TrEMBL record:
EC id: 2.7.7.41
Annotated metabolic or biological route of this protein: Lipid metabolism; Phospholipid metabolism; CDP-diacylglycerol biosynthesis; CDP-diacylglycerol from sn-glycerol 3-phosphate: step 3/3
UniProt xrefs under PANTHER family: PHOSPHATIDATE CYTIDYLYLTRANSFERASE (PTHR46382)
Membrane topology, record value: Multi-pass membrane protein
One term of GO molecular function: phosphatidate cytidylyltransferase activity
Domain of life per record: Bacteria
Name of the featured protein: Phosphatidate cytidylyltransferase
TM segment ranges: 12-42, 63-94, 100-119, 126-146, 166-185, 192-211, 243-261
Catalytic activity reported: a 1,2-diacyl-sn-glycero-3-phosphate + CTP + H(+) = a CDP-1,2-diacyl-sn-glycerol + diphosphate
Localisation per UniProt entry: Cell membrane
Amino acid sequence: MSNLVYRVLTAFVFGVIALYLTWLGGVSFFLFAWCIGGFILYEWIRITQEKWCVLQKILVSIFYLFFGFLLVLNVSASLVFCVLIVLAAVLAIISIKNSGWVFCGFLYASFPVAALCFLRDHEMLGFQVVIFLFSVVWGTDIGGYFIGRALGGPKLAPRFSPNKTWSGALGGTCVGVFAGIWVSVGFFDINLASFFVLILPVVLSIISQLSDLGQSWLKRRFSVKDSGSLLPGHGGFMDRMDGLVGAACLLYLIGSLMSDMDAPFNLFSMI
């Protein structure tokens, strides 16, 4: 089968699993998000392995397990994020020379996991918010990939990613915004007249693509084509989740500012 067929099949299977576990919520969704974060952390270490010493690799595994334990205990969001920053700093101090790669790697894997878990931490609103997030990010990915391939044109950021084009970026944004609005209005009966419903998908789509570019830059920096090989047609989990990492963190931040750090899902109750 062609790479495109593998890509579509993998995305379909993964999407079905993600939607089902998001619907279940609770521990099932936590384990799903936490495991994905673990794969992302493993792939970050694999890509930047020259920057890590043995002690850091051992400690980062222990710290990530401890992070999961904190989420299971349902402690406050402020405590979780403070602990994550302290743990990342401890890892970085072990090797000052390469501290940036270690510090950022641990937070890159753990922050979006915490964001997703707190966003989903409500039976109805949490489900709506996360599905909305998925629809924007997935719509952006799908639209960007197929429209970019069909139209081609000037490169978006050839220094970071040689294959991405302006047509793909704009097309991805259009599809992502449409998907987000369609899900909000069609399934969750959100008021389309709300300015927030119109602007939020645009912002999330753009951040999703910037996050994607950042991950592409990382791979080029270390001369790596794919972050892994666990997902046929996509590469690794970082390759599949790159856009979601940035978008999830931003949506959590917006929800926290508009509501509360422990209840960012209330964002949808205000629209």
